[in-house]
Every structure is written in structure tokens, then in C-alpha cells.
């Protein structure tokens, strides 16, 4: 690891000033992703600005929304009473990620900002447009079993690794940013970029900006929800496919509210808007569930080794929605 300077700001304003005054500096929170990348020589910041001591509170606002400080640890968010009661898919998603020790260190802001990556990104001998723009993508013709089937490009086929962000996408979460130009809010669905020709530009953040909070919109009614993760081993593995879903039906059996997002299939958490639109206002039947899943995956483009992901995703969507529908009828 190369030498670097270290700054510990007193507040968010001081953190932004430190980043602006030290070109090439990086924000450091739990360090579970950044420090790993520094060890591998992928990230080489000259200065680290430690924001782990900033706001870590979880506050219910007057409108019922939940405001979560970016320095909140993943474990604290998953265990919070209001999160467990109102957003069970989020608790389940967080507990599906990494290990207990890492969840105790990782922060909400850091989880949102973790790099979209694949093994070729870590391999300095491999061509990777994300690591070195214009170098090419060895994953496309290499071992690509875990790679994207939706929203990928010729430049990059890596998948976003976060479990938490899949649930946040389904819940219409909003990211609050603070930077040299002031404050702004951005829907999490618009926060992460698809790869296009510049997969190194992973988010819509502007230079110097800091995630200072996350906001979860209040739900009009309790929404039965869950998170299912399909992976190669029982713990400490990224999703091959994951589904975050919430389903509410009206008295006549039609779908009144549906939240559906996918992980492990794209460069960003993938909101399944086509499937949602297909089912809203209609009764749940096996044929309609199959129609919705197939519609969502109609643009999927498999690589040599990952075509199985399309069928796996279809089956997982159907299984999760069948589970929620069955529970709602009890």
C-alpha cells in the first residue's frame, strides 16, 4: 500500500472542503471496499478524508419518512425497529450481505458507493475499461458466469455487488448529497450509471460530493416484502441473482402495490419496471407471473457462460411473488 495523508473532518462541510483542497482525495468510512482496493493497488488516493464519525442517526420525519445518516453502520440499520417493521426486505437484504464483522464496519454511504466490479477488475494483467478506460474488457470473452445479462455494454459486463441497494431501489430510496455547490437529492434509481462507453463513471455524483444521508419514503400501508438471494455458497458470496419484492393486493385480489428490483444481473440495482407495470391492477395468476418475468427479461443478452441466469432470474421472480401472494391470502 502506498503512503497517503489522512484527514478527519469535524463535520460534513469540513469533509467537502478537505476533498476539494486535496485533488485525488477519497472519502473513507468503514473502509470495507476502499481499503481492499488500495491493498490491491486499484485505488491510489493521496489523501483519505475520514467521514466515519459523521451523522449516524436514524430519524423518523414528520411526514413518516425515515432519514438515515450516511455513517450509520449496516448492522444498526438492519436492526432498527422501524426498518424491521416497515421495510423487512431491507433488513433481509443487509443480513444477506458479507459477514457480521463486515456489516458492523460497513456504512450506509459506503455500501451505496462500493465499486461495481468483477475478477478482471482486480487483475492488473487483464484488460478492464473500468480500471483503465479504453483498455478493453477481457470478461466478455473470458470466464463470465457471474456477469451481467441486463443493461451491459461492449465496454463492461460487471454486476453491482450490493444487496442493500437492491432493496433500496425497490423502496424508492433517495440519496442526499452535499458538495461544493450545496445540497441536492437524487433518487437511488438514478444514482448508479449503466456502463455505456465509460464504465469507470459509476455514479451520478459530481466532483467533491459526499453522501450525507439516505431517505426512505413512508409507505401508505404496511407492505409485505422479502429479499431472496441465490448464491454459490451459504455466506460471504455475491448474488448470482437476487430479488427484492413487496406486494400488496386489494380486497378484490388485484395488485394494489408492487415493488420489484433485481440484483446480480446488471451494472446497477435493476428496478423491474416492466414486470411491475404488467402486474399492477391485475390478479395474480401463474400465467401472469410468468408473463411479467419474461417481459422484464425480454432484453436480456447472455454471454457464453451466464445464459442460465435468465431462467434462474425468471424462476426466482415467480417464486418470490408466489410466496408473497400466498402469505397475503392467509
CATH class membership of the domain at 225-328: Alpha Beta
Radius of gyration: 20 Å
Name the quaternary structure: single chain
The end-to-end span amounts to: 56 Å
> What percentage of the residues does DSSP assign to strands (E)?
15-25%
Largest sheet: 5 strands, antiparallel
**CATH architecture annotation name of the domain at 225-328:** 2-Layer Sandwich
The coarse overall form would be: globular
CATH superfamily caption of the domain at 225-328: CO dehydrogenase flavoprotein, C-terminal domain
Low-confidence stretches: none
Helices, by number, come to 13
The percentage helix is: 25-40%
**What is the strand tally?**
12
- Strand arrangement within the widest β-sheet reads 4-5-8-6-7
What's the helix-strand series?
A: EHEHEEEHHHHHHHEEHEEEEEHHH
Mean pLDDT: 96
Features:
Enolase-like, domain 1; 4-stranded antiparallel β-sheet; 330 residues; 13 helices; 19% strand
TL;DR of this structure?
This protein is an alpha+beta fold and 330 residues long. The protein has helices at residues 12-21, 34-39, 74-79, 81-86, 88-95, 100-105, 108-113, 119-122, 164-170, 188-191, 273-279, 286-296, 308-328, and strands at residues 5-7, 26-28, 47-50, 58-60, 66-69, 174-179, 182-187, 210-216, 225-230, 241-249, 255-263, 270-271.
Report on the architecture of this protein.
Among the domains are: 1-54, Uridine Diphospho-n-acetylenolpyruvylglucosamine Reductase, domain 2 (2-Layer Sandwich), CATH 3.30.43; 225-328, CO dehydrogenase flavoprotein, C-terminal domain (Enolase-like, domain 1), CATH 3.30.390. 31% of the residues lie in helices and 19% in strands. The chain has helices at residues 12-21, 34-39, 74-79, 81-86, 88-95, 100-105, 108-113, 119-122, 164-170, 188-191, 273-279, 286-296, 308-328; strands at 5-7, 26-28, 47-50, 58-60, 66-69, 174-179, 182-187, 210-216, 225-230, 241-249, 255-263, 270-271. The strands form three sheets. It has a five-stranded antiparallel sheet. A four-stranded antiparallel sheet has the order 9-10-11-12, with helices on both faces. Helix 5 runs antiparallel to helix 9 (164-170) and helix 12 (286-296) crosses helix 13 (308-328). The longest helix has 21 residues, at 308-328. The mean pLDDT is 96.
Amino acid at each position: 500500500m502506498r503512503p497517503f495523508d489522512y484527514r478527519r473532518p469535524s463535520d460534513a462541510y469540513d469533509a467537502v472542503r478537505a476533498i476539494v483542497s486535496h485533488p485525488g482525495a477519497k472519502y473513507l468510512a468503514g473502509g470495507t471496499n476502499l481499503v481492499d482496493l488500495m491493498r490491491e493497488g486499484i485505488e491510489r488516493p493521496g489523501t483519505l478524508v475520514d467521514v466515519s464519525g459523521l451523522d449516524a442517526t436514524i430519524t423518523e420525519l414528520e411526514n413518516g419518512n425515515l432519514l438515515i445518516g450516511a455513517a450509520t453502520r449496516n448492522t444498526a440499520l438492519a436492526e432498527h425497529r422501524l426498518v424491521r417493521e416497515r421495510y423487512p426486505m431491507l433488513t433481509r437484504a443487509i443480513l444477506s450481505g458479507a459477514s457480521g464483522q463486515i456489516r458492523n464496519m460497513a456504512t450506509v454511504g459506503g455500501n451505496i458507493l462500493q465499486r461495481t466490479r468483477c475478477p478482471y477488475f482486480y487483475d492488473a494483467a487483464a484488460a478492464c475499461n473500468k480500471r483503465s478506460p479504453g483498455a478493453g474488457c477481457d470478461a466478455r470473452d473470458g470466464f463470465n458466469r457471474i456477469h451481467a445479462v441486463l443493461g451491459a455494454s461492449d465496454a463492461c459486463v460487471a454486476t453491482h455487488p450490493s444487496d442493500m441497494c437492491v432493496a433500496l431501489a425497490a423502496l424508492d430510496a433517495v440519496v442526499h448529497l452535499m458538495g461544493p455547490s450545496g445540497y441536492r437529492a437524487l433518487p437511488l434509481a438514478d444514482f448508479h450509471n449503466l456502463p455505456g462507453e465509460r464504465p469507470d463513471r459509476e455514479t451520478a455524483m459530481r466532483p467533491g460530493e459526499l453522501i450525507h444521508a439516505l431517505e426512505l419514503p413512508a409507505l401508505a400501508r404496511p407492505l409485505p416484502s422479502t429479499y431472496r438471494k441465490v448464491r454459490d455458497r451459504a455466506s460471504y458470496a455475491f448474488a448470482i441473482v437476487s430479488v427484492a419484492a413487496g406486494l400488496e393486493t386489494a380486497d378484490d385480489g388485484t395488485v394494489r402495490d408492487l415493488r420489484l428490483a433485481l440484483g446480480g444481473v446488471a451494472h446497477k440495482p435493476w428496478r423491474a419496471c416492466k414486470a411491475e407495470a404488467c402486474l399492477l391492477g391485475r390478479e395474480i395468476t401463474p400465467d401472469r407471473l410468468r408473463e411479467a418475468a419474461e417481459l422484464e427479461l425480454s432484453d436480456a443478452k447472455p454471454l457464453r457462460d451466464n445464459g442460465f441466469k435468465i431462467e434462474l432470474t425468471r424462476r426466482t421472480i415467480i417464486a418470490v411473488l408466489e410466496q408473497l401472494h400466498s402469505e397475503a391470502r392467509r
